[in-house]
Design brief:
six-stranded mixed β-sheet, globular, mainly beta, Immunoglobulin-like, 2 domains
Length: 325
C-alpha cells in the first residue's frame, strides 16, 4: 500500500479562482486579476457536472506547486478551505481545478504580501529550485528518491536560525506517497541554503512533484558567519553499482576561523548541465580540524538514485561547529 502522510497539509491553492472568502462559485471568465495575500484563508467552491475525483492545484511565480486533497463533488459542488502560505512567491500565479480526465477550470491571480496587523520580523524562506531523481528497487516493490531544494531567505536583516521543512512526495494525480520532515539550522539573511537528502518509498509509483511547507521557528538579527571552504570536489560514480552516483568527495579547509572546526554538517545538491536539480545527499565530519588545516570529506549518503551521467555541478551548504583550542 502507498505510504500516506498523517501530517495535515497546509493547502496553498487558496487563491484558486475569482473567489471571495464568502465561498462564491468559480467563474471561468474573470473581469481582472484576483489579488490574494500571503496567509489569507479562502473558501473555494467550484460547481462541476463531473462525478469523478477533483483536485485543486496552484503553481506560484517561482515554479513551486502544491495540491489540495482529492475530493468528490456533492450535489454538483466541490469545496476546499485553503490558505495562501506565508512564504508563497509574490507575483502572478496559476491555478487549476480538475475533475476526472476532461473537466477542468484554470485561471490566474496575483499574490501580494500579507496585510500587516503587527510588526513581524520573522524572515520568509522560499524554494528557489527543487528537483529529484527516482530509482526503483532491484528487489521488492519500493523505490528511492534523491532530492534537493535551494532555499532562499528573502529577509535582508534576519537570519533564520531554525527552520522546519515538511516535504511531501506527490504523484501526478495528487496522491501523497511519502512525507519527510527536516530542520535546517541556518539560512542567513539574503542567503541561500542547498538542502539535499533521500527518502525510500514503499511504492514505485512515479513522483511528479515535491510539496514543500516551510516554517521559521527561530531567527535573530543577521550577522557575519564564519564558514569553511571546499576545494577539489568531485562527483564520482559508484564502484559497485554501475551507472549510478556513488559519492561526492573533496577537501574541507578551515582557513577562515582561528578556532578548531569540531563538527561540519554538509548538505549537497547536484545539478545537471542546465542547472536543474537532480538530487542530493549529506555527510558529517567529526574529526577536529585545526585552524589553517584541511582534510578529506566523503559524502556517500543520498546519491544512489541519481544516474551517473546526469550531474555536472553541485552546491554545498555547511553548518559548522567551532571550539576553542
Amino acid at each position: 500500500m502507498p505510504l500516506r502522510s498523517v501530517v495535515p497539509l497546509a493547502l496553498i491553492a487558496a487563491a484558486l479562482a475569482a473567489l471571495s472568502a464568502s465561498g462564491a462559485a468559480a467563474r471561468p471568465q474573470a473581469t481582472g486579476p484576483v489579488v490574494v495575500h500571503r496567509g489569507q484563508p479562502v473558501k473555494v467552491s467550484v460547481r462541476t457536472p463531473s462525478l469523478a475525483a477533483c483536485l485543486a492545484e496552484a503553481r506560484y511565480a517561482d515554479g513551486s506547486r502544491q495540491s489540495s486533497g482529492i475530493k468528490h463533488a456533492r450535489d454538483g459542488l466541490v469545496t476546499w478551505m485553503v490558505r495562501v502560505p506565508n512564504n508563497a512567491a509574490l507575483g502572478k500565479a496559476r491555478w487549476s481545478v480538475r475533475c476526472g480526465v476532461t473537466w477542468q477550470r484554470t485561471g490566474t491571480w496575483v499574490v501580494k504580501p500579507a496585510v500587516a496587523t503587527k510588526v513581524d520580523s520573522t524572515p520568509h524562506l522560499l524554494v528557489e529550485k527543487q528537483g529529484f531523481s527516482q530509482r526503483n528497487d532491484k528487489l521488492g516493490t519500493g523505490s528511492t528518491v534523491s532530492y534537493g531544494l535551494l532555499l532562499k531567505n528573502t529577509s535582508g536583516t534576519q537570519d533564520a536560525t531554525e527552520t522546519y521543512l515538511l516535504i511531501n512526495f506527490a504523484t501526478a494525480g495528487g496522491e501523497l506517497i511519502g512525507t519527510v520532515t527536516k530542520k535546517v539550522e541556518l539560512v542567513a539573511a539574503n542567503g541561500s541554503y542547498a538542502f539535499g537528502d533521500s527518502l525510500h518509498l514503499r511504492t514505485q509509483a512515479p513522483v511528479s512533484n515535491l510539496e514543500v511547507t516551510i516554517k521559521v521557528l527561530a531567527h535573530e538579527p543577521g550577522k557575519p558567519r564564519v564558514l569553511p571552504h571546499f576545494v577539489n570536489v568531485r562527483i564520482l560514480p559508484s564502484e559497485t553499482d554501475s551507472g549510478w552516483i556513488g559519492e561526492v568527495d573533496g577537501e574541507i579547509v578551515n582557513d577562515t576561523s582561528p578556532q578548531t572546526l569540531a563538527v561540519a554538517k554538509l548538505s549537497i545538491v547536484l545539478l545537471d548541465a542546465t542547472g536543474r536539480i537532480v538530487g542530493g545527499g549529506t555527510t558529517t565530519t567529526f574529526s577536529p580540524l585545526p585552524s589553517g588545516s584541511r582534510m578529506v570529506f566523503l559524502a556517500r549518503s543520498g546519491f544512489s538514485a541519481i544516474p551517473a551521467s546526469t550531474p555536472t555541478n553541485l552546491i554545498i551548504s555547511v553548518d559548522p561547529t567551532y571550539s576553542a583550542d
